[in-house]
Design goal:
Length: 219
């Protein structure tokens, strides 16, 4: 029982590691200069605000900038911005005190599990600061490694990758046992059991339920 519990814990930890590695890799590979400028929508806000949300493979990008002229199109902020975005609730003091523009991204697959955010005021993006995340390249490329977990996505992705890793391990182990059994070997350690009757494997002590034919009989 303890052995299976240990295996489950190990598989879950490996799933979490794979989750983190994939999120970092997807964020590193994403080129934010190639995000389309199309689809920017005016959001009804205290000031005219333009928000862009785009999804690439494993990466979601959200950009918001205060605009100098009004638009006839108005949308609720919750209809465009994902719930993990700072803009979803305008939760930072920088949003509340100034007209802060933002670059945000989240990465992970199949769910977004980590996020990063960069805020700046005015028309000079380089004068901003990283709220959370690790900045690899500054504006305008905005290459960041996300460091803040999106807990629902984190646990969901960890479960998915843990299940996939567990299934891979189980199928691999089962296949190895079948191959060893067909060749007349111990399923656990691979010791050659042909030519004699064994109740247990002489090498590892595993119980043997089948008597294998001798090498001469097979030949």
């Amino acid at each position: 029982m303890m052995r299976w519990f240990t295996r489950i814990i190990v598989v879950i930890l490996l799933g979490a590691i794979v989750n983190v590695a994939i999120a970092c890799y997807l964020a590193y590979r994403a080129d934010y200069t190639q995000f389309s400028s199309q689809g920017w929508q005016a959001i009804k806000h205290s000031e005219p605000l333009i928000v862009n949300k785009e999804d690439k493979l494993g990466v979601t990008f959200v950009g918001s900038v205060f605009y100098s002229r009004n638009s006839d199109q108005f949308f609720e902020i919750h209809e465009v911005v994902p719930s993990w975005s700072l803009r979803y609730r305008d939760e930072t003091p920088l949003f509340q005190q100034t007209k802060a523009n933002s670059f945000e991204m989240a990465s992970g697959w199949p769910l977004r599990s980590f996020k990063a955010a960069y805020l700046y005021v005015g028309t000079i993006p380089r004068a901003g600061k990283v709220i959370y995340g690790y900045e690899l390249e500054p504006i305008p490329r905005v290459r960041m490694i996300p460091t803040k977990p999106i807990w629902m996505g984190f646990f969901g992705n960890t479960a998915v990758w843990a299940i996939l890793l567990g299934m891979t391990w189980f199928l691999g182990k089962t296949s190895l046992h079948l191959v060893r059994r067909r060749k007349g070997r111990c399923q656990k350690c691979g010791y050659d059991l042909r030519g004699a009757e064994h109740n247990r494997c002489p090498e590892c002590g595993t119980m043997i339920r089948v008597n294998f034919p001798s090498r001469e009989t097979e030949s």
